[in-house]
Amino acid sequence: MASEHAAASRVALLEDELRGLAEELSRCQADKEFVWSLWKRLQLSNPDLTQAVSLVVQREKQKAEVKDRKVLEILQAKDSKIETLEQRLSGQQQEINDLIQRKIAVDEENARLKNEFSNLNQKFKDKSEELKDTEECAQKKEEQNRLVIKNLEEENKGLNTRCADLLNDLEKLRKQEVQWKTEKSGSDARIKNLEADITDTREQMKELNSKCSNLSSQLAVKQEELSQKERDMTRTKEQEKWHSEGDVDVASSKDFGVYLTTLNCACVS
Asked: Which terms in the GO cellular component ontology are assigned (predicted)?
C-alpha cells in the first residue's frame, strides 16, 4: 500500500515536471520565432528601428504579462495547496485528538484488562488449588469406588450363588406344584364326591326332619288325647277308692309319656 502511494506521488511529480518542460519549450519556441522575425526585419536595407524596438517592448510586455499570469497561477495554486494542507492539517489534528482520546480509552481499557487479568490470575490460582483438592478427592473417591465395586462384585457372586439356589428351589417348588396339582385334582374329585354325598345326606335329613315334624305333631295330638283321658279317668275315679289301680295306671301313663318324649328328641336331632 505504501509503495503504491509513493509510486503515485512520483508519477504526479513527473507529470508536473513534464508540463513545466512543455510550457518552457513552448516559450522558447515563441522566443525563437520572435527573434527570427525581428532578425529578418533588421536585415532589410532600410530597417524600421522604431518598429523593431516597439515590437521588442511589446514582446517583453507580453512575456511579463505571461510571467505575471504564471506567477499568479502559481500563487493561486499555492494558496489552494495551502488551504488543502490547512484542511488536511485540521483533519490530521482532529485525527490526532481522536487518537489521543482513543489512546486514553485504550490506556483505561489496558488498566481495566490488567486489573481483570490480575483477578483472573488470582481466580486461576484459586481454581488450581481447588482443582488439586478436587483431584485428591477424586482419587480418594475412586479408591472408595474401587473398594465398593470389589465389595459389590463379591456381593454379586454371593447373590449369583443365592440366585442359583433360589432357581433350584424354584424348580423343586415347580415339581412340587405339579405334584400338588395332581394331588389337588384327585382331592377335588373326592371333594366333589363328598359334596354330592353331603347333598344327598342333607336331602335325607330334610326328609327325616319332615317325618320327625309329622311324628312330633302326631305325638302332641296323642299326648293331648292321653292327657284328656287321664283327666277323665281321674275324675271318674275320684269317687272310687281304688287307689292302687289308679296309681298303676298313672305310672303306666308316665312311662308311656317318657317313651314318647325320648322318641321325639331322637327325631329332632
From this structure: centriole; centrosome
Which amino acid appears at position 118 of this protein?
A: S
The answer to whether 215 and 267 are in contact (CB under 8 A) is yes
Domain chopping of the chain, boundaries: 2-108, 210-238+249-268
Residue 146 CA, chain-centre distance (Å), reads: 32
Residue 14: name the closest of 38, 44, 6 by CA: 6
At 135, which amino acid appears? E
Report d(CA 128, CA 268) in Å as an integer: 102
- How many angstroms separate the Cα of 83 from the Cα of each of 68, 80, 228? 22, 5, 169
CA pair distance 239, 227, nearest whole angstrom: 19
Residue 261: all three cell numbers together: 318324649
Tell me the pLDDT tens digit for each residue of 117-149.
999 999 999 988 888 888 888 888 888 888 888
- Number of helices (H), then strands (E), belonging to the chain: the values are 3, 0
- As given in the structure block, the three cell numbers for residue 155 are 456381593
Alpha carbon distance, N-terminus to C-terminus of the chain = 135
Do 244 and 196 meet the contact criterion of CB atoms below 8 Å apart?
Answer: no
Distance CA 230, CA 207 (A): 34
Please check the confidence at residue 268 and state whether its pLDDT lies above 50.
no
Residue 45 carries which DSSP code? S
Residue 196 reports pLDDT greater than 60: yes
Q: Which residues, other chains included, contact 63 with Cβ-Cβ below 8 Å and sequence gap of 6+? A: 27
